[in-house]
Amino acid sequence: MRFPKYGNYSLDVSGNVLEVFATGAWNLKTTEFLIEEMNELIARFEGKPWAALMDGRRWVLSTPECQTRLAEAIKVNISRGLTCSAYVLDSGMVKRAQLERTHPSNEKGFDSKHYKREYFMHYFEALNWLHKEGFSPITGE
Predict the structure, then answer these.
(1) 116, exposed or middle or buried, with CB in 10 Å at 0-12, 13-18, 19+?
(2) pLDDT at residue 26, as a whole number
C-alpha cells in the first residue's frame, strides 16, 4: 500500500459542530494548514460552546511535532469554546495513543475540567454522544 507524501483533511462546520476528516500520514506542514483553516472556521461560533467530531479512520499517523502542535491548538480551542471532542477511530490502539498525547489534561496547570473527550468506532455513536452533550451538526436543534 502506498500513502501520499502528506496527509490530508477536510473541515466543515455544521450546527455547533466542527467536523474534521483526516486521512494519510501527517507532518507538521499538514497540521499547520489544518490549524490555520480551523481557526478561521471556529470564529463562526463567536465564543459559544461547540464540539469537534474527528473521523480518523483513514488517518495513518502523525509525527511527535504534529502531536505537540495539535495539543497547543486544542488548548486554544478550549479557550474559544471547545467543550467536547468525539474521535472516530478503527480498532487499533496506536492512533488513540497518539491522540491521547494531545489531551490538555496532560499539561500541568491547564484547566480542562470543562472539556470532555471520547473515542468511538462508529460515526453514529459519536454523533449520538455529542447530541446527548448538547451538540448537533443539524441546525435548528
Answers:
(1) middle
(2) 84
Query: Is pLDDT above 90 for 101?
Result: no
Taking CA 137 as the corner, what is the angle to CA 28 and CA 105, rounded to the nearest 5 degrees? 50
pLDDT of residue 92: 72
> pTM value?
0.84
pLDDT, residue 96, reads 60
Distance CA 129, CA 25 (A): 28
Identify which of 115, 11, 135 has the alpha carbon closest to the alpha carbon of residue 71.
Answer: 115
Half-sphere exposure (CA, 13 Å, Cβ side) for 118?
16
47 DSSP 8-state letter = T
Q: Are 77 and 52 in contact (CB under 8 A)?
A: yes
Task: Report d(CA 76, CA 55) in Å as an integer.
Answer: 21
- Please report which helix (H) or strand (E) contains residue 93, including its range: helix 93-100
Please say if the pLDDT value at position 105 is more than 90. Answer: no
Q: What is the radius of gyration, based on Cα positions, of the chain?
A: 14
Q: What are phi and psi of 83, to 5 degrees?
A: -115, -40
Largest Cα span, the chain: 43
